[in-house]
Amino acid sequence: MPFREPTPQTPPTKLADVDAAIDRLHAKKDAWIAVGIPERIRLLERCIESIVAVSEQWGEIGAAIKGLAPADVLAGEEWVAGILPTVRNARLLVEALRQGGQPRPASLRTRPDGRVVARVHPANLMERLMFTGVTADVWIEKGKSPSQGAIYRERDAKKGLVCLVLGGGNVSSIPPMDVFYKLFAENEVVLLKMNPVNEALAPVFAVALKPLADEGVLEIVTGGADVGAHAAQHPKIGSLHVTGSDRTYDAVVWGKDADQRARGKASGQRVNDRPFSAELGCVTPVIVVPGPWSASDIRFQARNVASMVTQNASFNCNAAKVIVTARGWLQREAFLEALHDELTKTPARKAYYPGARERHQAFLEKYPGALVLGSVPPDAANEVVPWTAIPDVPDAAGGYALTNEAFCGVVAEVTLDLAESHAGVLRERDPGAPSVERFLERAVAFANERCWGTLSCCMLVHPATEEAHREALGKAISALRYGGIAVNAFPGLLYALVTPTWGAYPGHTPEDIQSGSGVVHNAFLYDHPEKSVVRAPFRIRPTPAWFSDHRNLLELGKRLVTFEAKPSWRSLFRVVRAALRG
Taking the model in full, what pTM does it have? Predict the structure, then answer.
């Protein structure tokens, strides 16, 4: 077998024990609101210590779920995407609370349209050195103030609630980080129901988050949909949060039966009308802005985008799903060929998330011209979804690849025809060519109107193009209706930094929830965020942690966890040394 055997199943929590856990939380919900900042800081600091104490076990079990051995280089994914953001989240919340729940951003500026933009990264010299050239901003909703930490300014404004958190199964940091947000940003005690995919980590989380459980503000339960459904309807549950599928959201809010859901949406009659925040995925577009790309630029960006497809076996809500290029860009074919080459070179991954093979087959049936890239070991044929590119997908509304999140290693390629071109060619070495502005207009409209969801998108832009078309790029970023926008980087960087917000663009209704509602992470505790934007250099050095061919990911992940738990110049040096070996 090329993949490690899966971890043993965890016994489901009995419904009577679920009820008892909810009763205990309900008895604690009002007392939690009164817990002061010093005690909250102590709880978070103890969580950091307990997370680090179980980090090796966490890494081993998380890797096993993905079919990886704990010593595999790719097992570093579990450290980088699971343990690291969780520790960082707790530490940044400590820093926020030390400033009364209103941490000062690096800068605040007001855009011409009146929206306020807060620079939340880098926040200090260490971050500037560790993430050279990377910045992150939180955009505040138009007409709203950049106020922060509402629950720490208005301590008596809200009664306590018990929140049911339906934890995501694809990335192990999701459940604990959702717990942190509900507790420390929204003042709600939490019943965490683990997803069956990663519930083998429940005993690890029980130790990692034991300070919160000892305080009586967290209970962890396991089981299938029956456990989640039972808890969601419990009369003492006051709110809900899910990271997962819009289908899960619809089943909870509108009912399990399709006809019932249709009737409910038509009438507005919900089967569950509790407040419900949700992060539900997206068909993430990657907008490739035409420019003067060299051969080495093409190869680097092909590695970049291929890694956005393959990281975590593509079981990411922010995985690259639609590559958007301009017809007439002279480097277009070379870039797409390089992307196919990088996907072909990337070893197949275990399709550990349920339904992946069925979703992949549905795409193949819709697009018989799809390119299956790379080879699959014969003895793993039933465990793998091969990397697959779908060339020449039309940009018309309603296309299957544009309206269905594959949640497996499938990426569609859309080429936009531009009404305004110069003799049919985008002059990649002519920075004054009007076609770049036209492409940005078309690409933004396509992303906003054709691609399902509003969670995340990516834009790749050469520095010469950005310099020549700064105003047009600024307008494009402003016009993109996405909760997370990454320029030259994997949108997962927004997730991992924790200081930006993570969630859908505001405005989805329960009847058409798409990418969800509300945000998490948001370590600066902004009350009215609209979206977050991260920018990275066009060529990132050293090799980014999300690159599939990173040679030292496991050591880097462990060094990063050590640094985030207790930042120091010595631990930063060790991070840099590990990164340079990638």
Answer: 0.95
